[in-house]
Fold each of these.
Amino acid sequence: MSPRPVILIFGASGQVGVELQRSFTNAGEVSALVRKSADFSRPEDLRSIISTVKPSIILNAAAYTAVDRAESEPELAMTINCDAPRVLGEEAVKLDALLVHYSTDYVFDGSKKSSWIEEDGTNPLNTYGRTKLAGERAVQDVGGKYLIFRTSWVYGPHGHNFLLTMLRLGHEHEQLKIVDDQFGAPTSSHAIADATRAIVDKALANGFESGVYHMTCGGETTWCRFAHEIFAEHHWQKETKVPQVIPISSNEYSTPAIRPANSVLCNEKLKSTFGVALPNWESALGKVMSTMMPRGPKGP
Ligand SMILES: NC(=O)c1ccc[n+]([C@@H]2O[C@H](COP(=O)([O-])OP(=O)(O)OC[C@H]3O[C@@H](n4cnc5c(N)ncnc54)[C@H](OP(=O)(O)O)[C@@H]3O)[C@@H](O)[C@H]2O)c1
């Protein structure tokens, strides 16, 4: 009988990190570390942690994800999003371990009219995207056994995300102005973690090719239509007031970091390689919201 895999999760307090702990709970011996015990702003410190735990699988959900703040902290963002993953890659190679790393749709500039495939040219518009792309390249340069999953518009029942922001603002305001000219695919942390588990199981059983794979929920929408769907799902709580959602353009909502106009990713490679597809974004949203709120009758 082969030994139970030793699985090391970084970023255990994050949206994806929390869900990875759920999805991998029975997959082996799991160690899940938060920032206090594995600080990615000090990448060299990660070496002794990894050589002590001796994982056969490293799941890296830690990242500098504050897209706007990254514009004023580019060096810290680069250390966490590029230098630290490079160290993870180097230590994984020493142990012949599999490194699973996550990247972003923001490696693209948004200029394509259709969905982006893995081979499309990258051209990040903001610091966060540049540091994440550098992280992808660092992991690829090191080589070994790695899977880089580019995902997008991540949300879930905890952490900082659009869903929770909308639910909070929806209680505070009667009208919300939401950007309606950026296209992407909202992707639940739950779906990312379950897909990661399914893929890791298949990869270890059947072998795999290291590389970059797109991993988002199916379909596409805008932030404004995402907000509409959130409040539609929310509506079955009779007592909940639903705010009016007003579409605006990106020009009317200025942020320190520029976002791509179209960052919809094509998931065909993930499906054809591993036979795994995430649910459509609307059904994933419904599933997440049903776990967050008590079921009640539909409102009038
Ligand atoms: N969020 C999105 O919309 C989105 C979109 C595309 C791709 N992604 C990618 O998906 C992956 C998971 O993202 P997520 O949404 O789960 O992010 P998240 O909720 O912001 O969680 C980030 C995690 O990284 C940890 N972290 C931050 N700085 C750290 C440091 N210096 N040392 C150690 N840990 C540190 C955080 O710890 P604390 O709790 O202590 O802060 C947290 O556990 C990331 O690679 C991200 O780039 C995310």
Amino acid sequence: MKVRVVGNSCTWFAKPNTNFIINDEIILDTPQSSTKFMLPYIDYEKIKYIFITHFHSDHFADLHLVFDWIKCRKNKEKVVVIGPKTLLKRLVILYRVLEHPKFNKKDVVKFFDIVELKGGEELALDGFKVKAVKVEHNVSISFGYIFKFDDCEKYVGFSGDSNMCDGLTEIIEKSDVIFMDTASVEKNKNHLSVNEALDLKKKYKKKKFYNVHQTDFITKNYSKKLNIPECGQLIEF
Ligand SMILES: [Zn+2]
Ligand SMILES: [Zn+2]
């Protein structure tokens, strides 16, 4: 399994927002400007799936631009887009707000299969299984995902944005490798804090953690204690 960490930061900093390309076939989250930052790494002809964790702009806002890339590609296979319920409604609103007044749902279904989840579902897809796990992030709905590829023995979890909740615990306990939002210094309702992340690292010694969704402050002050990947880094298991 190959995970390209396209970005590992969050909205207010110069580095790219956190998103991933998995095995060259899956995009996980489409933050604002991610279409620019993915360009050195992505071949849209190969993309089969897009996963969205939640609808904050630093996870969702470029989805319409990713769609525009895919609509222009030679490969006419439909791309499966998986995310929390209300995904399609929000995507249509996004297009209309951005001056595509004639855009409608038919444009989407021609190129994409939209799969809206409520959380807790396990899907068997092409070469892998995935579970959507509901996490707490002070929003209407937010997921993390656990992936298990047929040709890789490891379970790999992505927390999305999450505080220390039951969903995050499930992701950690069921995964061997975890890409985990660690965006806060202080404990709060939106993100995991550095100390919570360090406690988890101590508690689950056999698991490999990557700390993402970083602020510049955390990267500068905690990079020795945390395991913060570089933007653009390719991680293989
Ligand atoms: Zn968020
Ligand atoms: Zn975020």
